[in-house]
Amino acid sequence: MSINVKQIICFIWLVLLISPSFSISAESYSYAPHSVATEDGFVSPKINPAALGFGNNVGLGFSGTYINESSGDISGSYLDTFSFSVGIPNFGYFLERKDGVYFHSIGTGFGISLNNYFGFGLSWREKSWKTPDYILSFLSRPADFVSLGANARFLHSDKPVYRFGVGFRPLFFSSYLGNRITGAIDLTLRGRDVNNPMFSVETELFDGFFARGSLNMEDNSAGVELAFTFPFVRIGSTAIFINGSKIQSAGGFVFISGKEFRSVAKKKNKRFINYQIGERVVEIKNPVKSSYFNVIQPGKDVLQIIEEIKKLEKD
Hints:
18 strands
């Protein structure tokens, strides 16, 4: 993917505009419900910067918490605890506010080989931008049914934290279900201490409805996310429960995406082209003999066919 220099300049300018004080600490929210192997949306700069190479983070995201994490009471204002994100191809910025303290995360991700991505990120708290945390991350999706992710967070004031995850799709189900259900297992290491694993599953059984659930065995917490999707907008709500039923936090979010989501609001285009492809694809030009010359018939070559397929994908 080519990167436009003007996009990079505008992106840096926007980050400076949003955070003039550069005043934000690297350990704010816990985004444990998101797997390092499967997350590639607007929280990617914080979870796995390598996923920014996919471009699914492109757009604007906002989330707010309406139940206080410590007391469980209604806070009454999204501005007490919130996050904001902005993304362009290969770059993402994530702003958070919690208990009056701001946190910044900025990252970049790009492909290093076929289906393999590398990412780098920085996180810091207010008035501490000179001593940020560094994040190195990796993401590999060698096949449609498996995804491998890892990141290493080098903390300024603590031991490094390593996180590994594997995502998988149950293709032994029908082709429909196999492509709409994704499970994941994540493991976190702090120094020599190995945390208990986190299990998560996400699904979009029906166009326009997304659901995610997680179970963190380390702190006995469970996360739930429900969202409705429209062609370029996803609106949803999240909640984290501890000890089975007590709500630790709950909030809502909206993401305006540069890419199109599956949606019940969009009718599927029935148009298709049947190329009757066999076991091999070979480009052949059949000549028509005219007198002493062979005249090549004007037909579509492979590149033209590929362009047609790309147009169909957008329909």
